[in-house]
Write a structure and sequence with these properties.
It is a single chain. By secondary structure, the chain is α+β, with helices and mostly antiparallel strands. The protein is 37% helix and 22% strand. The protein is built from 21 helices and 23 strands. The strands form four sheets. Strands 11, 12, 13, 14, 15, 16, 17, 18, 21, 22 and 23 form an eleven-stranded mixed beta sheet that branches. A five-stranded mixed beta sheet has the order 1-9-8-4-5. The N terminus is likely disordered.
């Protein structure tokens, strides 16, 4: 930044006279006149320099470069101040560069990395590299970049102002996504790229930086200054080849330097496995949401989309037990982890005349380990309870949203009830009451009952959103959880910001209108609130009916994947996606 010191005037001389007086001692009249053909009479040379010469790039002496000073100090150029005057009065004390270094191979290794980096940033090599690189990116053609590199030599010396040290390299889904992690020191702007032996080239423009205190401590006295511990990096590279060496290269004014080589390991295509690897990168908890938004989330989202494309191609198996009646409501129940709850649900359904006469029952097997035991169990349960139902297998674990969407594909009724396998009615008539409430109010897009734990305390009485300042995310919040139902402030139909997906009724037309359940959340978080926000985004409302009550043995219908640390990071990842999609609706109250 340009700095001008204030001082009290000691004479009444004009500003031009003051500038002239200040630079006279350093101004080389003989050099100036001989170099630029100016008369040596009187003060003609210095007057010419002050009025015209410096603007034309004329140097006042053999050791100072007007163009170099302005190029290396763009704030001075922008100010319009005479560059030689500024250097004599201020720049000398601020240790500003006054001439572009004339670097040769020997000189470069001896000079400060800061000087070398600054020279590179203002060099023709850097300018030409940026133009060639941008042309290659814009036109998806490496011709201009290859032509640029042909004019440069590959050096066998270390890069003069970059230390680049990759420590781990992996690829996911056979190279569709890749990640390189390690640490780097740099004294200035970098031009770095990676190549493989097949000619593929990857420009490295975006680094996710994270703290590496060990590196910071190790390089305290390095010629490359370290002012922050943010020296760790993670790089995302797409469409690399698994098991093929990647060579990283960096540019300087001397030419091309090899920085490092890696051979990425293939982790596989499962987004959960990718998340487990990525979540190992050290980052403080309060910074995870920004990291996930900038880095991990992009990789995982791409893997989930690719997996979704493959899952959509899989065939389905449909097993029918009995013939379902002409139905008002299709009940869709995903099965994961355990099947011992199925009989308890069928037992309660068998005692409900409305369900027996007006409901279609669909169980979606979402766990390959359940496929063998569920079929004989289903046959026996149908013979015992005489409740017709369909059993759907989608070929793979699709997750909560995917299983619900699959069940909806086979649903015939104008209303859809999405029900967890660990939710149990307390008495007949509950479904009919929910259906009557939504049917009588066109404003309602989705409705849920009260859910209680096995001990009778409230588990769900509508959902709101709560901002976690420690994590910088909005999370789903269950108000009144754990209270006695008598203390529920809501005594009749109430509109809420969101509701649970454990027991949720909606019209088929509304379900189709919003595109069903979103399948881009990892391991079953925020899918129900996402659906509610999609409904609200259409102008319809989300309702909670406390006069209908069921029991929910929360999260006993599936196992929690991974460690507590992993689950916490999954919640933060999904919350980050959720709020990036719906922040304006989350922060605005639901209309009532």
């Amino acid at each position: 930044m340009l700095k001008l010191r204030k001082s009290k005037p000691v004479t009444t001389e004009s500003p031009d006279s003051h500038v002239k007086r200040v630079i006279t001692e350093e101004f080389d009249k003989h050099y100036y006149c001989e170099t630029y053909g100016i008369s040596e009479e009187n003060d003609e040379a210095i007057d010419h320099f002050l009025t015209e010469g410096w603007k034309q790039g004329y140097d006042p002496c053999d050791w100072f470069s007007v163009d170099g000073y302005l190029k290396l100090n763009p704030d001075i150029k922008q100010s319009g101040v005479n560059p030689f005057f500024h250097y004599v009065v201020y720049g000398k004390h601020e240790h500003r560069l006054f001439k572009e270094p004339d670097l040769d191979i020997a000189g470069m290794t001896e000079m400060s990395p800061i000087v070398v980096a600054k020279s590179f940033a203002n060099s023709e090599v850097y300018t030409e590299a940026q133009l060639a690189k941008q042309d290659a990116i814009n036109n998806s053609d490496l011709t201009s970049w290859a032509k640029f590199l042909d004019g440069l030599d590959e050096q066998d010396t270390p890069h003069p102002f970059i230390k680049f040290n990759p420590e781990a390299s992996v690829c996911f889904n056979s190279g569709m996504e890749g990640c390189i992690t390690g640490w780097m020191l740099s004294a200035g702007v970098e031009i770095i790229w990676a190549e493989d032996k097949f000619g593929a080239l990857y420009f490295i423009d975006a680094f996710y930086k994270y703290p590496r205190q060990d590196v910071f401590q190790a390089f305290q006295n390095s010629a490359i200054p370290v002012v922050s511990a943010n020296l760790g990096f993670a790089i995302r590279i797409q469409n690399i080849k698994a098991g093929v060496e990647l060579t990283f290269k960096g540019l300087s004014e001397r030419g091309i330097h090899i920085l490092a080589s890696v051979v990425p390991d293939n982790i596989g295509s499962n987004p959960v496995d990718a998340a487990k690897w990525l979540f190992g990168l050290p980052t403080p908890m309060h910074l995870l949401s920004s990291r996930f938004n900038e880095f991990d989330g992009l990789i995982i989202a791409n893997l989930m989309e690719a997996r979704g494309t493959e899952v959509a191609k899989l065939p389905h198996r449909v097993y029918e037990f009995g013939v379902s009646p002409s139905s008002d409501v299709s009940i869709i129940i995903p099965l994961y982890g355990r099947i011992d709850f199925v009989e308890s649900q069928l037992l309660s359904f068998a005692d409900d005349p409305y369900i027996k006469e007006k409901a279609q029952l669909i169980f979606v097997v979402d766990d390959p380990n359940l496929l063998a035991p569920i079929r004989p169990l289903a046959e026996n349960l149908y013979k015992l309870y005489k409740i017709p139902f369909k059993l759907i297998w989608g070929g793979v674990n699709r997750g909560f949203s995917g299983a619900n969407n699959l069940g909806a594909e086979y649903a015939d009724a104008p209303y859809l009830l999405f029900l967890n396998s660990d939710v149990f009615p307390q008495q007949p008539g509950w479904l009919e009451s929910l259906k009557q409430a939504i049917e009588s109010n066109e404003e309602i897009g989705v409705i849920t009952p009260r859910l209680v734990f096995a001990d009778g305390s409230i588990q769900h009485a509508g959902m709101t959103f709560l901002y976690r300042t420690d994590l910088n995310i909005w999370i789903n919040h269950h108000p009144n959880m754990g209270l006695d139902p008598e203390l529920d402030p809501n005594k009749e139909l109430t509109f809420c910001p969101s509701v649970t997906g454990a027991c949720m009724l909606m019209r088929r037309v509304d379900f189709d209108n919003i595109g069903g359940w979103s399948t881009d959340y990892l391991i079953g978080d925020f899918e129900d609130s996402d659906l509610c926000l999609k409904i609200r985004n259409t102008g319809k409302k989300v309702a909670y009916l406390p006069t209908v009550e069921l029991t929910h043995l929360e999260r006993q219908s599936f196992g929690i994947t991974g460690t507590e640390d992993f689950r916490t990071k999954v919640v933060i990842l999904n919350a980050t996606k959720h709020q990036s999609k719906w922040r304006s609706l989350i922060e605005s109250p639901a209309s009532v």
